[in-house]
Amino acid sequence: MSVTALIFDLDGLLVDSEPLSRRSWAEVIAQVGYTLTDEIFVQMIGRSETEVRTLFEQVFGRDFPFETAYCLRQAHFLAALAREGVPPKPGAYDLLTYAIRAGLPRAVASSTSRAMAEGKLRSAGLREYFEIIVTGEDVPRAKPAPDLFLEAARRLAQPPASCVVLEDSVAGVQAAHAAGMRCILIPDVQPIPPEIARLATWRLRSLAEVPALLEALRANGNAPHQAGSA
Predict the structure, then answer these.
(1) How far, in Å, CA of 98 to CA of 104, rounded?
(2) Which pLDDT value is given to residue 222?
(3) How far apart are CA 179 and CA 131, in angstroms?
(4) Which residues pair with 164 in a beta bridge?
(5) Average pLDDT across the chain, whole number
(6) Catalytic residue among 9, 16, 147, 168
(7) What was the pLDDT predicted at 230?
(8) How far apart are CA 173 and CA 112, in angstroms?
(9) Which of 31, 110, 142, 149 fits a 20 to 30 Å CA distance from 46?
(10) How far apart are CA 28 and CA 30, in angstroms?
């Protein structure tokens, strides 16, 4: 089936926000008397608020003040975002410009809140490229459930099978697979186990490689094929 739309994850895929996210979480968690390790942080990537709450209960115990920490982190991150900003990932502008020229509709589908999604996109100079933004506030289940991607396809008015998802996280690849969509995996901070990587249709090193892949698909009648591994 032809590629008729692109659905983008946000954090770690379109914008390089994970370093700022980790720092803001670490500082807030330290304020309430706990320590955030790299091992815990990579498990948080791509997860919803509810899933992060469950993870923290498992790691820190039921006494962890999640509501306090979550509210502090939201404020801390948005203040740091306004002060420092987050850059787009390499190749983002060129890919989005290519997609516009190719007539490919585009959506962002992220488990984060709408305020966070809007703020990050504006900070990176990418907001104008997207008419459709679907967040964790718009669906009953976040990734790895398929709800975000299916809602994005619905709003794009495109069949799921003709949408291509771009993802960097375990939960995101699982969600794309569950939605019946082809997936371009571009790993970032989170290690991707082989069994998850196999669920992706293609694995690339950066967004800069995506236009060539899409051009090859067009030249070959959009027949799915495996691209080079990172």
Answers:
(1) 9
(2) 55
(3) 21
(4) 6, 182
(5) 93
(6) 9
(7) 38
(8) 16
(9) 31
(10) 5
Taken in order 159, 165, 171, 173, the sign of the CA dihedral is positive
Task: Write out the chain in H/E/C secondary structure.
Answer: CCCCEEEECCECCCECCHHHHHHHHHHHHHHCCCCCCHHHHHHHCCCCHHHHHHHHHHHHCCCCCHHHHHHHHHHHHHHHHHHHCCCECCCHHHHHHHHHHCCCCEEEEECCCHHHHHHHHHHCCCHHHCCEEEECCCCCCCCCCCHHHHHHHHHHCCCHHHEEEEECCHHHHHHHHHCCCEEEECCCCCCCCHHHHCCCCEECCCHHHHHHHHHHHHHCCCCCCCCCCC
The token duo for 87 is 């850059």
To the query of whether residue 94 is one of the catalytic residues in this protein, the response is no
- Scanning the structure block, which residue is given the tokens 């992220």? 110
Catalytic residue among 11, 16, 168, 188: 11
Residues 2-12 have pLDDT tens digits of 999 999 999 99
Which tokens go with 13? Answer: 């895929």
For residue 11, indicate whether it is catalytic: yes
Burial label, 21 (beta-carbon count in 10 A; 0-12, 13-18, 19+)? buried
Taking the alpha carbons of 6, 10, 12, 14 in that order, is the dihedral positive or negative? positive
